[in-house]
Amino acid sequence: MKDAFGTPQSLLILGGTSEIGLAIARRMIARRARTVWLAGRPSPELEHAADSLRTLGADVRTVPFDALDPAPHAEVLGKVFTEGDIDMVLLAFGVLGDQANDEGDPPAAVRVAQTNYTGAVSAGLICAAALQNQGHGSLVVLSSVAGERARRTNFIYGSSKAGLDAFAQGLGDALYGTGVHVMVVRPGFVRTRMTSGMPDAPLATTPEAVATAVELGLRRRSETVWVPGALRVVMTALRHTPRSLFRRLPL
Amino acid sequence: MNQGGLLWANARVCVSFFDDTRLITHFGESIGHCKNVGISGDTVLAMSPDAPSAPADPAQPHTPVSTNTPQSHTAETHGDEDDPFVSISGWGRTAPTTARVLRPRTAAEAAAVVQGWGARGGIARGLGRAYGDAAQNAGGCVLDMTGLARIHTIDGQAGTVVCDAGVSLHRLMEVLLPLGWFVPVSPGTRQVTVGGALGADIHGKNHHASGSFSRHVESLELLTANGEVQTLRPGSDLFDATTGGMGLTGVILSATVRLHRVETSLMSVDTERAADLDELLARLTTDDHRYRYSVAWIDLLARGKALGRSVLTRGEHAPLTALPSRARHQPLDFRPGRLPAPPAQLPRGLLNRTTVGLFNEFWYRRAPRSRTTELQPLTRFFHPLDAVPHWNRIYGGDGFVQYQFVVGHGQEEALRSIIQRIARRGCPSFLAVLKRFGTSDPGWLSFPMPGWTLALDIPAGLAGLGSFLDELDEEVATAGGRIYLAKDSRLRPELLDVMYPRLPDFRALRAHLDPQGVFTSDLSRRLAL
């Protein structure tokens, strides 16, 4: 059960090798979390991630999960919930893709969309129903500022996150009053493996900062969290920028 | 059923509306037919009383709560997946979860409900004054006991009352005071039920003299997991596990409570200031035994030399002879006043270091240095906050945490160190009280132990509060103390075993009596009780 500050005792992280996901897990273990499920494609990295959390004192288990293959999602995730309540589900998987290449390689672009959006739709609905059955819990969805308004340089990834973001918002409204809390987290540029080699964008942040924001959001039962918080203002301005101008901005 | 449909069905049934007028008259025998009652820490929601129930959907012909017929009730509660779930929180308004709320009107109905409430179990709930998650059960059932609210017999010779568990102490006072009787133990609010008082084994300002509530109970009826009703008397294991057992051994249906004889409904109160913690502890130690009731309000924002400055209020029930002659013809008058409730939506951060600091300064200075035998209405002495309905709203949407711990005699340094840390941290707490406890009570999970207890309210939104309270817990545990389960909403589970040595017995008894976990609450899940 979550405590008065919204701190969970058990976590399920979809995308068990995600750096942001693991940073959040470490933070929660430092607070109250004792049980952590890492869901991801079976790999040495996943086991390594599990081991790193075990050294912090958590009981960590891994489950095979592939966003691109939604057929077994219900069975695999269902099993996790039969083992005990999950206080917080974190949807942390996602791929950035390579815009320049993917524009000329539609199957690769579809993979980005399938991972980030349809995979999340499948997993999100399954987890939402399970959380609803237990009458409590948070579903934390890692969206992105890129989904707020698609940019010329990043619109394949951006559109997939836009879909995810809209899906999570709607799901949150559908679940309002059921005891399940859906929180959309919109980080800006986060320095991780996924963005390594890219120049820092303005307002760049770290996985630890995202973890701090998630912790605060859980306590306040927020519906939307921006990391850093200043992005809320920046993106509000960008959202209202006329298209002809937005297109010319060096974003 | 497809998932989208499931989501929408549940979103729809949570539409509800506030009905403030029902609040105070909600308990007692005069309850209207309220088909479907949802509860949260700040209000009792009446969802469409008597009108077609909120989801006017032909697919959901039944509401789960029967108002009169037990047979139809059980039929309805079995396996009806579309029963409305409502959001429930404790008085601190933190960590709400949803549960199916069932409101039995008779013991037979309660027994039928308990048999059929499904895999996630259920828990009895009274008036929702536990601060944390003791009376909520995510995804399962919550048994609203305020429907069992009959006072059966009052024995004026022996001074005992037999009443249902859902009777509130307020109701008992309304009925008993005119007859010259008072409840044996009264906490800081009248809005608790007898069942809740036993489940939490509450204490009052007279703990040093009279012990906890359960010590004044001759017997109680407990509905256990197998559907049997057992009559328990003090001294038996199940009685001692049930008092203070947070409702996890079964549903208390009724109790026989010994009363205290009073001549008037007024209190004769001595008030004095203590300039610092040393003076406070010294006074409480030397002359607490002279008073039946004793408590100290403590200014936790005061630092340095003023650390622990307090206002002691101690008193007795006023004898008839103490009343002025014009008041003597109605000495047992009981008319609690009520102020308007704060609005439902208040911003967070209203109670901060500045506002609370000002209040504390005013409260301390306003108290007389020393005044004796002042006559006060009983409600002002015992339950000042009951005058403000929904006072918990002043903490805003974040809610608040109540922290109450006890450390034994000889651990005064630990007490001082904790008070120092709270003062240094600047926790804005304007409702802090310190009390000296008497001997321990027999309940296995009863909170009191001989020593010092401090209770404070803190806004839950205070940055870093979780870790700060964890540190205080460690200090309390090291000093051999414990924290109070009825107020807890955030304790680290590992510490519970250290604080409550009889916990293994409690767990063993539950495993034996209730292996399926028929009685389960969010508290029991969180702390693995």
Automatic annotation (TrEMBL), chain A:
Report the GO molecular function annotations.
Answer: oxidoreductase activity
Instruction: Tell whether Aminoacyl-tRNA synthetase is among the UniProt keywords.
Output: no
Q: Which InterPro entries match?
A: NAD(P)-bd_dom_sf, Sc_DH/Rdtase_CS, SDR_fam
Supply the alphabetized keyword list: Oxidoreductase
Q: Which domain of life is it from?
A: Bacteria
| Keyword Flavoprotein attributed | no
Q: What is its EC number?
A: 1.1.1.333
Spell out where the chain crosses the membrane.
none
**Xref: PROSITE patterns:** ADH_SHORT
What enzyme category does the UniProt record give? oxidoreductase
**Pfam entry (one):** adh_short
What PANTHER family does this protein's entry cite? 5-KETO-D-GLUCONATE 5-REDUCTASE, DECAPRENYLPHOSPHORYL-2-KETO-BETA-D-ERYTHRO-PENTOSE REDUCTASE
Alphabetized NCBIfam families for the sequence: PRK07904.1 (NF005912)
Can you tell me which family this protein belongs to?
A: Belongs to the short-chain dehydrogenases/reductases (SDR) family.
- The protein's name is Decaprenylphospho-beta-D-erythro-pentofuranosid-2-ulose 2-reductase
Species source reads Streptomyces albipurpureus
